[in-house]
Amino acid sequence: MFQSFFTGLSGMLSFSQNLDNVSNNISNLNTPGFKGSDTFYSSLTSGDSAFGTQISGQQQRFTEGEIRQTGNPGDLAIAGQGFFILMNDGEINYTKAGQFIFNDDGVLVDSVSGGKVAAITDEGKLEEINISDVGVLAPQATSQVDFIGNLSTDMSSFTVADVEVFTGLGEQRQYRFEFTNNSATEAGSWSVRIVDDNGADVHTGEIRFDSQGTPVNTFSKVSFQVEDSLGGETTVEIDFGENGSFAKGTSVSGGDTSTLRASVVDGYGVASLTTVDFTADGQLTLNYSNGEAVDGPFIALANFTNLSTLSVVQGSVFEAGDNSTRVIGRANESGLGSILSESIELSNVDLSREFADMIIIQRGYQASSRILNVANQLLEQLYENTRGR
């Protein structure tokens, strides 16, 4: 009879500990990346005798939580398998909660734990993501201008004006291209006069077209020099395309209308970083004020053969056991999921499940306490019987 007191107490203690776990799950219902856990019981036995119950342990539920869009550039979610990798003072941790920000040093960090978000190199090494040195995009000189459209053979001349190119210092220069029909002298020939924005002649060349109206390969390009304010020069090549191709410049009969236009292939001035985002493959994209986009590093993901080797360090941050086997790679590779930008993964706690568990715990606790009550009544009856003799 006395053992029933300890048996009932063990049940009450185990159910109260389980209630602690359920309450923790519910309290983290809105915690991004939080993984709920289950409590497991085991019987206290000795030989053939049972002495109640105890909590044998807890296990995380690693099912995916709902993914919700936030609109915040630093928020990332993983659609599928994998964890983000955090580096913190030599320790490696993992998380599903992609609430990341760039700190004052330009390093991408987890806003909750402060761990540095890892990128993966082509050699498979982990490194931090740092944008402190890419806030300004260095200028790039223009090297090529494509001419697209038709130069009508029925016209004696045609001008393409206001073509802007960049010097090596990022300075803009404006040019005018004057085309004069020389087919009376040489079939399919057009002279090209290049004039700068001050009206000064820069270069004169020749473009030729075959009988089909496509460029002759040896006369399909003209090069000229662009000078910057410090006297430096860069070469710009104008390109009409290849012989037999109508993809760029042509010269066929078009009446009094020519459709030729210039398309500057490259070159830009100094620009500042405006926004950053990540592709579905986890690659950082740096967007600049001049419209240029530069590719950055790939964010690293990790997955584990046995997720039960992960244990909670802090909130939604986990660490791996010594015997864990992990796979590190990029998104959409090696079975790893894809990256969803401006989104976060919410907690995977199911409130209806937690309420059901609470009812079971409450009934179990009441039943265990009832055991103590009945055992106490039996003892009182025993004492009463003893005093009545």
TrEMBL record:
Q: Which residues form a coiled coil?
A: none
Gene Ontology cellular component list: bacterial-type flagellum basal body, rod; bacterial-type flagellum hook; cytosol
In what residue span(s) does the Flagellar hook protein FlgE/F/G-like D1 domain sit?
A: 77-136
Give the matching InterPro entries.
Answer: Flag_bb_rod_N, Flagellar_FlgE/F/G, Flg_bb/hook_C_dom, FlgE/F/G-like, FlgF, LlgE_F_G-like_D1
One BP term from GO: bacterial-type flagellum-dependent swarming motility
Q: What positions does the domain Flagellar basal body rod protein N-terminal occupy?
A: 7-35
Q: Which UniProt keywords apply?
A: Bacterial flagellum, Cell projection, Cilium, Flagellum
Pfam entry (one): Flg_bb_rod
Residue span, Flagellar basal-body/hook protein C-terminal domain: 342-382
What does the UniProt entry say about where the protein is found? Bacterial flagellum basal body
Q: From what superkingdom does this record's organism come? A: Bacteria
Q: How does it assemble?
A: The basal body constitutes a major portion of the flagellar organelle and consists of five rings (E,L,P,S, and M) mounted on a central rod. The rod consists of about 26 subunits of FlgG in the distal portion, and FlgB, FlgC and FlgF are thought to build up the proximal portion of the rod with about 6 subunits each.
What family is this protein classified in?
Belongs to the flagella basal body rod proteins family.
Q: What protein is this chain from?
A: Flagellar basal-body rod protein FlgF
Species this protein is from: Agaribacter marinus
Name the lineage.
Answer: Bacteria, Pseudomonadati, Pseudomonadota, Gammaproteobacteria, Alteromonadales
